[in-house]
Write a structure and sequence with these properties.
The structure holds 2 protein chains of 2 kinds. Chain A is built from 14 helices and 7 strands. Chain A is an alpha/beta fold. Chain A has 2 domains: about 240 residues; about 110 residues, abc type-2 transporter like domain (abc type-2 transporter like fold). In chain A, strands 4-3-5-6-7 form a 5-stranded mixed β-sheet, with helices on both faces. Chain A has a two-stranded antiparallel ribbon with strand order 1-2. In chain A, β1 and β2 form a beta hairpin. Chain B is α/β, with parallel strands linked by helices. The chains are: A alpha/beta, B alpha/beta. At the A-B interface, α8 of A face α2 of B. Bound molecules: adenosine-5'-diphosphate and magnesium ion (MG).
């Protein structure tokens, strides 16, 4: 081959070949090279939707008439609202909102139709969980148009005089939890979860594979120390690191971004501790799977991607298709985000938090089981 | 079910086998190491020495076979064994990002050594490392790393040392000091199983075992190992020995030729045939019948393939 300026084509080509051969041997890296773009495309292309539709809605109807029913039908037809429950009273509505079971509660007061027919301009109340402004804003913007169309279609005959704009009734929208729609209120507490996921999974994964890669694991195994002691002993410092990270972000949230802290700060730390523990089990499992530190990093990234995309951290959870929500529901970050946002922004207590607490516990127990099954007691 | 610690044998294992996937790397290995004995473990790279040592100290579970180490069952009583054995890995396996004293202190805590601080200080003194105690282990040269590793695996005063190629890459002076230390330990009743590639180290062992392709080919004192191969050896002195060597290789009765400086050793198992060949080919050079030495035997053993002795027999 040609040479110029001391550059040997032959040498260069053997360098290329060597690199390819090594790459081919590293099966995990190879899988990542293919897997990461596929995953990214699927996530961005199909799962993420910044104009979410089919949002879960509950109805409190004290006035069941043709007109109210057709209003509800029109809401559903708009494809923004998905009526999942009919609730007896406002207290039940507030609870459903606090627990994140629904994003909207539509309250039709008694005598609504009667007042409408008497031209008394009755009001409908829509309560919205505005924790995540992006999730609710499009739907709320559509409400007035829907109201108008119901009037145009349903009100016929002698009542036709009610038609025409403005609609003969008012829609009062009451945005709960984050009434000013400040995105930081929503994003900054969630950041705690994202940072903890990355550092906990990455650092524990590395900490254990490092021992194996450097050969010090053999030394440890030869000493009278039990696997449980090795594991838990190695993890303690990372729990401390995680709590420090959480504190930094929470301080910034409170004093830099002025995020309101309605709930109990002790509950926030308990949630963080549970979440850290759940992620540590992921880290340990990865460290048993990975042969070296590079592979541990790759696995951590692979785990991290769906966590940011599908947990509701960056994009509204409610806007994702069912399959993406199903994956999201398997990730501890999804629950932690609901938990910490619920505690901070909604002031949720124990009862409202429990639906997000137990899935994290289940996750942790399952992974602990996998991790201890895959942990190698000997060098086999 | 604590076995009674058998005082006679430090290691007594029978029929150990280990496979990695399709690869059968240790085949029916049986070893007996007496207390206070320095037992040399020889064999080419990849012959299964490290794997055998790991099975003896409970780091690997044998696929089949059984035995005791310091009287404790190598499968069921691994925890007991770990407490009493000092294992020095082939590759330096202490924490390079910890200082010497931090490494020793960590090890001392692992074994719950009473009077920990004093024990560590004494170990540093013996090593002559007190002045460099704060230096990171990763910055030590090969010889010092090996001394630190030995000190660390001696901290808990083990009854048995398992040393896996402890002197690989260490200068001759440091090797000599290391072996002097081993011999004084053995004199105190500590048993040592040591793998090595060095002939001068092999001759300092009380007993030897030679392993190839996972199979033990010889075991016993140096004399027994030499005798077991039934070799006759001639030494030829003179010039142009490499020419002679090339020629002799093709002749009947010659199974091995090795040059040691200006002497050519020619060995074979048929003594009479070899004598005739040597006398016919020496061509004026001085040839004499000598005692086969350990190195001749090891080189001879190394030339064996799985088919002619190393493999399933
Ligand atoms: N963890 C392992 N996985 C697969 N093969 C192994 C493993 N450890 C050792 N081997 C193989 O077993 C054989 C014996 O290795 P080893 O016991 O390290 O030999 P030695 O110490 O005598 O050089 C070698 O062929 C080696 O490649
Ligand atoms: Mg080895």
């Amino acid at each position: 081959m040609k040479r110029w300026g001391g550059f040997s084509g032959t040498r260069w080509w053997s360098m290329v070949l060597k690199e390819f051969t090594q790459l081919k041997r590293d099966r995990l890296t190879f899988a990542m090279i293919v897997g990461i773009p596929i995953m990214q495309t699927a996530l961005f292309g199909y799962a993420i939707n910044t104009n979410p539709k089919h949002l879960d809605t509950a109805i409190i109807s004290a006035d069941d008439t043709d007109i109210t029913r057709s209003f509800i039908a029109a809401l559903e037809n708009s494809s923004y609202f998905n009526v999942v429950a009919t609730l007896p009273d406002e207290a039940a509505g507030r609870e459903a909102l606090a627990q994140g079971k629904v994003l909207f509660v539509i309250n039709i007061p008694a005598g609504f139709t009667r007042q409408l027919l008497r031209h008394e301009r009755p009001s409908l109340l829509i309560e919205a969980d505005a924790t995540d402004p992006t999730a609710t804003s499009s739907a709320l913007a559509a409400v007035n148009g829907i109201a108008q169309s119901v009037v145009d279609k349903e009100i016929t005959g002698p009542l036709a005089s009610l038609r025409g704009s403005p609609a003969p009734f008012d829609v009062n929208i009451h945005q709960l939890y984050n009434p000013d729609n400040i995105t930081q209120y929503f994003v900054v507490p969630g950041l705690t979860g994202m940072v903890l996921t990355l550092t906990m999974v990455l650092m524990t994964g590395l900490a254990i594979t490092r021992e194996r890669e450097r050969g010090t694991m053999e030394n440890l195994l030869a000493m009278p120390v039990t696997p449980l002691e090795v594991m838990t002993g190695k993890l303690i410092p990372y729990i401390g690191i995680g709590l420090i990270q959480a504190t930094i972000i929470l301080l910034a949230a409170r004093y830099v971004f002025q995020v309101p802290f309605f709930g109990n700060i002790g509950a926030v730390y308990l949630s963080a501790l549970l979440f850290i523990a759940a992620n540590l089990t992921v880290g340990i499992t990865f460290s048993s799977l990975a042969q070296n530190q590079l592979q541990a990093v790759q696995l951590a990234i692979f785990f991290f991607l769906p966590n940011i995309m599908l947990s509701g951290f960056m994009f509204p959870f409610e806007g994702m298709p069912k399959w993406a929500q199903t994956i999201g529901n398997l990730l501890p970050l999804t629950y932690f985000l609901r938990l910490i946002r619920g505690i901070l922004l909604k002031g949720n207590g124990w009862a409202d938090s429990w639906p997000s607490v137990w899935p994290m516990m289940v996750f942790m127990v399952v992974l602990m089981f996998i991790a201890s099954a895959t942990y190698r007691r000997t060098l086999d | 079910m604590t076995a009674v610690a058998n005082p006679e044998y430090a290691i007594d294992v029978q029929g150990l086998n280990k496979s990695y996937g399709e690869k059968h790397v240790v085949r029916d290995v049986s070893l007996r190491v007496r207390r206070g004995e320095i037992f040399g473990f020889l064999g080419p790279n990849g012959s299964g020495k490290t794997t055998t040592i790991r099975m003896v100290c409970g780091l690997l579970k044998p696929d089949s076979g059984s035995g005791t180490c310091l009287g404790y069952d190598i499968v069921r009583e691994r925890a007991e064994i770990k407490r009493r054995v000092g294992y020095m890995t082939q590759r330096f396996s202490f924490w390079e990002d910890l200082s010497i004293v931090e490494n020793l202190d960590f090890v001392a805590r692992m074994y719950a050594i009473p009077e920990r601080k004093a024990a560590v200080r004494k170990a540093l003194d013996n090593l002559g490392l007190t002045a460099r105690a704060q230096q990171l282990a990763g910055e030590l040269s090969g010889g010092w790393k090996q001394r630190m590793a030995l000190a660390a695996c001696m901290l808990h005063e083990p009854n048995l040392l398992l040393l896996d190629e402890p002197t690989a890459g260490v200068d001759p002076r440091a090797r000599r000091d290391f072996w002097d230390e081993l011999q004084s330990l053995a004199a105190k009743g500590i048993s040592v199983l040591v793998s090595t590639h060095y002939m001068d180290e092999a001759v300092r062992c009380h007993k030897l075992a030679y392993i190839a392709f996972g199979k033990l080919l010889a075991q016993g004192t140096a004399g027994e190992v030499i005798a077991s191969q039934h070799l006759t050896t001639w030494a030829i002195h003179g010039d142009r020995l490499s020419e002679l060597q090339d020629e002799l290789r093709k002749r009947p009765g010659v199974e091995q030729t090795v040059t040691f400086g200006d002497v050519l050793h020619v060995s074979g198992s048929d003594a009479e045939l070899l004598r005739r060949t040597v006398e016919a080919s020496a061509g004026g050079r001085r040839a004499e019948l000598i005692d086969t030495n350990l190195e001749d035997v090891f080189i001879y053993l190394m030339g064996k393939t799985p088919e002619n002795g190393g493999g399933k027999a």
